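Bug: token stream looks shifted between consecutive jobs. Job 1:
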Amino acid sequence: MLTNTTQLLLLLLLSLLLLLDWRLVNGATATWGQVNKYASTLYTQDVYLTRANRTTDVAYDLQNAGASDTRYMITAVHAYDLTPQEVNGGDGGAAELINGGVGQQHATVRVLRHRAVDQLHFQLVIFGIDL
């Protein structure tokens, strides 16, 4: 049995750890849909933007799907900002779903680099279930 003082110290320590963890993953991560236990990874792509290009569109459809992926429906689209923490606090840009997505067999995600950032790194992951 823990004393009240010990419980309070543990709660304070846990709160501090959660706050520090939040600061380490402060990048812009966007999620559309939900990954359930039946979902498979359909597509993964790393996106790099530099000063030369501020925006790009990443498309997933039957042209870049494998032969076995043509019977899948998208259940989730995740765009993870992997820009280093030293660069603008890890927030290199933003992502938006501009076409298709959850419930479809195609998706287009636009990735935009913030002006204050020299280089952005996003990872796009698309999940789906077998029809």
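Job 2, same session, no restart:
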Amino acid sequence: METKQMVRYVAIGAVALIVFVIFFNSWTDVEPGEQGFVFKPFNTPSITEKDAFVEGTYFILPWNEMITYEVVNKSKQYVQKVMDVNGTDVTVEVSVNYNIIPAKVANLHIKHRENYTIFIDDKSKGAIKDVIGRYTYEQVYSTKREALEGEIEAILERDFEGNFLNLNYVEIADVNLPDNIAAQIEEKETQKQRNLTAKEKQKEQEYLANARIEKARGDSSLIVSAIFKAEAIRLEAEQISKNPQYIELKKWEKWDGVGSPYGNSNVFGDKAISILKSN
């Protein structure tokens, strides 16, 4: 009797332990930056596309599985050797920034499984090769990077559409050319800078020359003015020396009508008579 009770207690304990383990293992987490869906192998369909689980802890039946994908922004770098429009080899480093569209992780899984990155790689490499091949190496190296990035983005946006991926941006991080071509471009750019510097110096010299001319003109006008003043003084001195009455004329020209233009020494007071007091 005691043996039967012992067996029953052991069985109950074993069942309780199994239930506890199952219950404990039925809790699953969706980490920050992830979204998930539940794979139900005994259901039809086994994946429900509309169900999306955001960050948190969830209880699922032990025979089901929570599958998660990161939906945060990610970047993939591609270092690729391609030919420009003239057949010259150009090595470019391109970054493609993307993310899985939130709430579409189940759709992505159904279409691509975990190998969706292979789809991204194939489409990105094809777009890079296609766009770089439309331009010369010089345009790729220096003048058309933004245009190239825009064209690659346009191609990838079309490719990602319907594949539950969102393209954020494309960036050409680096461009490498054969050494001889890179040196030629560098020399050309250096010469452009030299030409610009020479033009600026020429403008500066022209400005300084014009400034000197204006200063010289200003100085010469002062000299001419001084010459005229000196000539006027000389002529006035000649008038005085030749005609003493010239002084009297100047006094009358400057008289303000008060008193005598000859001063208070005039015996006639304010009368305009040129007879002076004797001392």
